[in-house]
């Protein structure tokens, strides 16, 4: 028995989770919403998603090559970014814009700050905000469900108001709760079907990829806030169910406010983060000039994350604040 | 069910050995006794090369208070006193004894007997010290030091640690099943030292058979109450602070010792050894070792003479089924990987695990994705993600602020990490650096 053995530090066993397996779970959880998007908006939803994913992966690959870094495409995080970005765009968006958005998400938002784990904003949301600022019309043109969307040109139809814009205009009769729950209305590719998104979120919770607290608190805060304030008839008459079922709330709460890198790591911090997202969303939706508010509220709370983490560090085990220490 | 906050559920791999009875392993022809088998000063040899020794004879003496005696586990001749490889990888002064195969017994420890209740705590602790008993769960802190609490201490909980939360290990489990009388007897001795009527044994609920056996045995005790506390199966349930918290709800403040919350915790095998020393007069010369891992042909539970080389234990069991790439002393979560199989079983060897190449492979580290899984599982409420990065940046102030010294190195963070980062290794290096800085400041 003269042979030398491998010596390493404990622990000598490890759990099965890898970055890749977690990202794969997120991709699986995002698939129902993609299927719903294809049913509602047609094949172009799939084309937009595919272009986004491909551009993100290629952008990441080229960046790594240029900087002579290890290829990180295998961790699948670029795929998730691409899918989320596509889900935040209307199916009618020109394809070249999706490419610009994807490159912005991966290169500027993610890689400029050090790549996976170091970006301080959600790449997909930051890219969406960038596109919205640059091409507001294309990003907010919603064709009615059933409009045939040609792949390379704009369709010949009149755009429709989203449920939230209709709500802001005081016209909610057009959409039933069931329509909103199933997602059969004009909106972004992946945001309209609450059913599909909740299915995916349930999968992530069961697989323990995410904890239920952030989506739950975020959605509950928006529900309470809009019930209280979202109607001019007075406090407590807002249609909260309409509010939480429409717009990007469920997509944002389940898939973007739960992003690991850009949200707090402490349990207390996550609760504050979710509350903050909810409050800002309500502020924007009720008093802002813009009917939707999810992406900006998450982006704003992303920026507050380091601060939240700092102030919510867990108390060390057995720590008791004694009088002597307090003095 | 009683438990603590945080922790993980690694696969327990205990089914390979938890039904196998403890087998007495015949000793090899040569045994190695490192002079440092415990925390504290190495012992001083009290035999010379060429001396004839008996089984149970003291061959090295405690050098100072925090140190421990060492006894020969066989009879024979002192062959050498030289540097041999210790399981920790360092060449360590060791006494090498050639076994004559006769097992000629030395005189038992003075003052032993069934009537220990007539003796003072000091006298009993002296017997324990004489027997060279140390914490056999792996930490190997001398038991007599642990039991010598300051006068102002008021101990109201004596807890025996039967959690055995490390995967693979079944040595404590088997001891509870096969020698419950020694364990309860040892607990009664410890209770007597602190003048207590109540004693506690914490066992994880994956060992229901052991709980049943212990409860039956505990019912036989008159005048005193032995409580078998069922604990949730979760790693690290057997860590001292977590066990105390689970059994009696008390939390040890940072930097304190168990007696400061009125508790004394001892391992199962330590407790049984205490019984054998105080009641039977036998010093610590054997221990129960689980032999496991998927590179082995026949996983076993052995009662092994201390000083037996790992290679001999493995050969006796029938050898390896495939080459071992990594061999561990202790469990896979906190155990030590040994440099080669010539190292001997020492007082803290609870298990020998042989892992084949595919299980010994080190995963490539990737950047932290801030998933916070380590924060959720840390039983000490630390932030391993931040400790890891601060340690890599040598940021001493940050490490102190993050309470790096609180870390019990249980490895839960590294186990759950999807990026496969080696937080414990970094924290351990950081602790050494902090100690060096403190020593330099003193000098």
CATH superfamily of the largest domain in chain B: NADH-ubiquinone oxidoreductase 51kDa subunit
For the record, the CATH architecture of the largest domain in chain B stands as: 3-Layer(aba) Sandwich
Distance between the termini of chain A: 62 Å
How helical, in percent, are the residues of chain A? Answer: 55-70%
What is the N-to-C order of secondary-structure elements of chain A (H for helix, E for strand)?
A: HHHHHHHHHHHHHHH
Distance between the termini of chain B: 50 Å
| Percent of sequence in beta strands of chain B | 15-25%
Integer count of domains of chain B: 3
> What is the makeup of the main sheet of chain B?
6 strands, mixed
Order of adjacent strands in the largest pleated sheet of chain B: 1-14-13-17-15-16
Q: How many strand units of chain A? A: 0
Rg of chain A is 21 Å
Key features of this structure:
heterodimer, A: 327 residues, mainly alpha, Ammonium transporter fold, 15 helices, B: 443 residues, alpha/beta, Rossmann fold, 6-stranded mixed beta sheet, 4-stranded antiparallel beta sheet, 14 helices, globular
Commentary on this structure:
- The complex is a heterodimer of chains A (327) and B (443).
- Chain A is mostly helical and 327 residues long.
- Chain A has helices at 19-41, 43-66, 77-87, 95-110, 123-134, 136-139, 163-168, 177-182, 194-206, 213-229, 240-245, 249-256, 267-287, 294-311, 323-326.
- In chain A, helix 9 (194-206) packs parallel to helix 12 and helix 10 packs antiparallel against helix 12.
- The longest helix of chain A is centred in the N-terminal third of the chain and has 24 residues, at 43-66.
- The radius of gyration of chain A is 21 Å and the shape is globular.
- The N and C termini of chain A lie far apart (62 Å).
- With 443 residues, chain B is an alpha/beta fold.
- Chain B folds into three domains: 22-108 and 284-359, Roll (Ubiquitin-like (UB roll)); 116-280, NADH-ubiquinone oxidoreductase 51kDa subunit (Rossmann fold, 3-Layer(aba) Sandwich); 373-442, no CATH class.
- Chain B is built from 14 helices and 17 strands.
- In chain B, helix 3 packs parallel to helix 5 (208-219).
- Chain B is globular, with a radius of gyration of 21 Å.
- The mean pLDDT of chain B is 95.
- Chains A and B meet through helix 1 of A and strand 15, strand 16, helix 10, helix 13 and helix 14 of B.
């Amino acid at each position: 028995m003269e042979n030398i053995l491998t010596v390493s530090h404990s622990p000598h066993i490890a759990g099965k989770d890898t970055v890749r397996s977690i990202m794969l779970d997120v991709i699986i959880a995002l698939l129902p919403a993609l299927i719903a998007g294809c049913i509602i908006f047609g094949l172009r939803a799939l084309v937009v998603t595919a272009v986004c994913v491909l551009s993100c992966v290629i952008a990441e690959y080229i960046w790594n090559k240029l900087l002579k870094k290890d290829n990180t495409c295998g961790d699948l995080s670029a795929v998730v970014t691409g899918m989320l970005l596509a889900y935040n765009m209307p199916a009618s968006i020109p394809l070249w814009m999706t490419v610009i958005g994807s490159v912005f998400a991966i290169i500027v938002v993610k890689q400029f700050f050090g790549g996976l784990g170091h970006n301080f904003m959600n790449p997909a949301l930051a890219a969406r905000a960038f596109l919205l600022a640059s091409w507001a019309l294309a990003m907010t043109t919603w064709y009615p469900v059933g409009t045939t969307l040609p792949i390379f040109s704009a369709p010949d139809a009149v755009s429709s108001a989203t449920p939230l814009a209709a709500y802001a205009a005081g016209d909610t009769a057009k959409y039933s709760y069931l329509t909103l729950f199933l997602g059969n209305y004009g909106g972004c590719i992946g945001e309209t079907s609450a059913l599909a998104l909740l299915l995916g979120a349930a999968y992530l919770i069961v697989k323990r990829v995410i904890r239920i607290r952030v989506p739950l608190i975020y959605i509950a805060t928006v529900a309470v806030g809009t019930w209280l304030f979202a109607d001019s008839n007075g406090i407590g008459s807002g249609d909260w169910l309409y509010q939480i079922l429409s717009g990007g709330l469920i997509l944002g709460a389940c898939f973007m406010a739960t992003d690991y890198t850009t949200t707090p790591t402490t349990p207390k911090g996550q609760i504050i983060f979710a509350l903050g997202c909810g409050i800002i969303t309500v502020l924007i939706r009720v008093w802002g000039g813009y009917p939707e508010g999810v992406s900006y509220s998450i982006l704003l709370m992303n920026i507050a994350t380091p601060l939240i983490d700092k102030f919510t560090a867990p108390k060390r085990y057995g720590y008791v604040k004694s009088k002597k220490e307090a003095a | 069910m009683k438990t603590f906050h945080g922790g993980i559920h690694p696969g327990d791999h205990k089914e390979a050995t938890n039904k196998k009875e403890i087998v007495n392993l015949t000793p090899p022809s040569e045994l190695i006794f490192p002079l440092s088998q415990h925390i504290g000063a190495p012992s001083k040899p009290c035999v010379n090369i060429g001396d004839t020794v008996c089984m149970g004879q003291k061959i090295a003496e405690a050098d100072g208070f925090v140190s421990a005696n060492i006894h020969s586990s066989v009879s024979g001749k002192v062959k050498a006193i030289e540097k041999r490889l210790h399981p920790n990888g360092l060449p360590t002064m060791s006494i090498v004894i050639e076994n004559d195969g006769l097992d000629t017994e030395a005189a038992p420890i003075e003052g032993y007997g069934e009537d220990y209740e007539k003796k003072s705590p000091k006298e009993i602790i002296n017997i324990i010290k004489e027997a060279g008993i140390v914490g056999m769960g792996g930490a190997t802190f001398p038991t007599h030091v642990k039991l010598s609490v300051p006068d102002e201490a008021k101990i109201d909980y004596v807890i025996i640690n039967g959690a055995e939360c490390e995967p693979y290990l079944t040595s404590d489990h088997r001891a509870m099943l096969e020698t419950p009388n020694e364990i309860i007897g040892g607990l009664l001795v410890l209770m007597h030292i602190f003048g207590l009527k109540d004693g506690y044994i914490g066992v994880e609920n994956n060992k229901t058979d052991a709980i049943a056996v212990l409860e039956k045995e505990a019912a036989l005790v008159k005048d005193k109450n032995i409580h078998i506390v069922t604990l949730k199966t979760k790693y690290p349930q057997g860590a001292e602070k977590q066990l105390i918290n689970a059994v009696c709800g008390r939390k040890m403040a940072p930097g304190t010792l168990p007696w400061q919350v009125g508790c004394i915790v001892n391992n199962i095998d330590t407790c049984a050894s205490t019984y054998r020393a105080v009641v039977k007069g036998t010093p610590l010369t054997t221990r129960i070792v689980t032999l496991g891992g998927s590179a082995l042909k026949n996983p076993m539970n052995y009662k092994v003479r201390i000083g037996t080389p790992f290679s001999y234990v493995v050969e006796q069991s029938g050898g390896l089924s495939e080459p071992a790439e990594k061999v561990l002393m202790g469990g896979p979560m906190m155990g030590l990987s040994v440099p080669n199989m010539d190292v001997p079983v020492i007082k803290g060897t609870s298990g020998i695990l042989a892992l084949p190449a595919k299980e010994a492979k080190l995963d490539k580290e990737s950047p932290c994705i801030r998933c916070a899984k380590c924060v959720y599982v840390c039983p000490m409420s630390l932030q391993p993600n931040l400790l890891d990065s601060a340690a890599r940046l040598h940021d001493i102030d940050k490490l102190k602020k993050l309470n790096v010294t609180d870390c019990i190195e249980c490895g839960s963070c590294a186990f759950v990490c999807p990026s496969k980062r080696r937080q414990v290794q970094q924290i351990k290096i950081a602790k050494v650096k902090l100690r060096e800085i403190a020593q330099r400041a003193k000098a």
